[in-house]
Amino acid sequence: xxxxxxxxxxxxxxxxxxxxxxxxxxxxxxxxxxxxxxxxxxxxxxxxxxxxxxxxxxxxxxxxxxxxxxxxxxxxxxxxxxxxxxxxxxxxxxxxxxxxxxxxxxxxxxxxxxxxxxxxxxxxxxxxxxxxxxxxxxxxxxxxxxxxxxxxxxxxxxxxxxxxxxxxxxxxxxxxxxxxxxxxxxxxxxxxxxxxxxxxxxxxxxxxxxxxxxxxxxxxxxxxxxxxxxxxxxxxxxxxxxxxxxxxxxxxxxxxxxxxxxxxxxxxxxxxxxxxxxxxxxxxxxxxxxxxxxxxxxxxxxxxxxxxxxxxxxxxxxxxxxxxxxxxxxxxxxxxxxxxxxxxxxxxxxxxxxxxxxxxxxxxxxxxxxxxxxxxxxxxxxxxxxxxxxxxxxxxxxxxxxxxxxxxxxxxxxxxxxxxxxxxxxxx
Length: 428
What we know:
Oligomer: single chain
Number of strands: 23
């Protein structure tokens, strides 16, 4: 994908349904006892991986066009069966981890596999708590996929302390807990996005949240109806592009404002961008939704660390790019989890930004970026990572001269229309 420099961006973009919520809606719809309806389901390839895996296990996922889907389930432990072949999770860590929790509570056998990128990501961290609950789960010697699973019904209710703040890991345990013989408690070291908890509440599942301690009591999952809000993580890359450019403004209506996701908006505001948020009707009565406008302004460096990191983990590549346009030093720490994503995002960001002329120091858990600097267009490799591809596109718009993003079509994993929307904003 070739990206040309852009002096100004302006306009409105309606992004597709939120990817994180879409995964969870499909899985809970498959577990509910009855028919559920979902509207504005994400068109991301990752979400289609979840739908395809559910169908392979006997789940009823019926699309009606325009993101509308009906889902039929028979209840926890009864809805799914052993697939005839290994389940292809594609590039989606969310599919593999959350689906493993769902399948663990069914008396079936399954192998979960994926592409080369997914096979490099850590999976033993999800296998361990599922083993504690009574499922048989094995990974490779290196703790990666393929993941081989033999479920059990019922599972054992347990208390699990997670090694990292991870919504995927937490959600895998919470979904498995629906098929346990007693309540299950998950304790996180820091709060992560709570889409699963909110949707469980929508489905009538009893749960309590006490800080970073979440307890689920097994219960039938009630059918539900939900219109999925727009994806903030997708919108952020377009909103962020407006931030360092005076006269630029981008509006994205109807996106999720889940508190576990709005860290990127808070960081943009703290850096000096003008961020306006107008809340609207919550989706399903449980997920905050609103319209967001970002207007360009002089940016300054800051520190992103601690509990703020899980709340903007997917957008840190964008924030690292924007830091090159900010006055002073931007320091990103406590972000070692970025090394276990679709790529080693920390190493890739440091190498790519240096290739564009940025002054960057790498740490084991983050980086420091000195700004402002003039980026120069160059050739950058997305490394099979959709967030990197979008970050490099933003960097290319801010650079002098054209930038080529190798493997840029990987954006289809989360945002198939990204480059088309980017070009339209630049042309308005």
